[in-house]
Write a structure and sequence with these properties.
This is Lytic transglycosylase domain-containing protein. It is built from 14 helices and 4 strands. By secondary structure, it is mostly helical.
């Protein structure tokens, strides 16, 4: 099975965004200024490498997304204890099904481990916790979610960069303008933000595209590549205090989430 990493464009997006950021319309904390912000962004974006045709297609159905703002302000589960977090996220069920998924996708996980040095356990832990092994990818319009957060004052610069990345994915055919995902614009079976698709996306099934939604091979290979990009060392352990736990820290900033990935992965891998 072909596992090809596709990169390029992320550094250019970062550079171009930094040049024009000072001239952006004012951010806002409610919907009142959203339309003006979007129109200003659309005027600037062609100078930053996004074609007018892509902008027209991508923004055709973009709206201020209140569900995204509610989710952004209400991330309470990351403050739970480890035991409570595992119960809330269904940790025992993820372990049980993860073992079955490992067996039924043995060739895929073997190929990924040969290529990246990442065993099945942590990948299955991430896959299971993020989307229930692809069973629920989110119900929010991705481009609306990312645009809303780019406009919102809390993390405007960060998500404006994500918006440029999302538009590049639209341009190359790797993100549908109608795609739906998680509330912060995360994409696909392991919930990548758009810029991470550009940086770490891998073509796991060899079809020339990175389809994080329909291709589990692409999603899992990309997740392994993300961990390698955050310092994963082949053959080293990934529990707390071991070298590869630092790579898991790169996946999510919440300590309890990191602990859950390590624990669930260990149970699945039988370590």
């Amino acid at each position: 099975m072909m596992l090809k990493t596709i990169v390029g464009g992320a550094a250019a997006i970062t550079m171009l965004f930094s040049v024009s950021a000072a001239h952006a319309a004012a951010c806002g904390n409610d919907a009142s200024g959203f339309s003006a912000w979007v129109e200003d962004f659309k005027r600037q974006a062609p100078a930053n490498g996004i074609s007018p045709s892509v902008l027209q297609t991508a923004f055709a159905n973009v709206q201020y997304n209140r569900a995204t703002i509610r989710a952004d302000r209400g991330q309470k589960s990351f403050k739970l204890s480890f035991d409570d977090f595992m119960k809330k996220r269904g940790g025992a069920a993820i372990i049980s099904r993860g073992k079955s998924m490992k067996a039924s996708n043995a060739a895929l996980f073997a190929n990924i481990e040969r290529r990246y040095g990442v065993p099945a356990g942590p990948l299955l832990a991430i896959w299971g916790m993020e989307t229930g092994f692809g069973s629920f990818l989110g119900d929010q319009h991705t481009l609306s979610a990312v645009t809303t957060l780019a406009y919102d004052c809390r993390r405007s610069a960060y998500f404006t960069e994500q918006l440029y990345a999302a538009l590049q994915l639209v341009a190359r055919g790797d993100l549908s303008p109608t795609a739906k995902g998680a509330a912060h614009g995360e994409i696909g079976q392991t919930q990548f933000l758009p810029l991470n698709v550009l940086r770490y996306g891998a073509d796991g099934d060899g079809d020339g595209h990175i389809d994080m939604v329909r291709s589990r091979a692409d999603a899992l290979a990309s997740t392994a590549n993300f961990l390698v990009g955050h310092g994963w060392q082949r053959g080293q352990g990934y529990q707390q205090g071991q070298p590869n736990f630092k790579a898991i820290e790169g996946w999510n900033a919440a300590t309890v989430y990191q602990q859950a990935i390590a624990y669930i992965g260990k149970q699945i891998d039988g370590q």
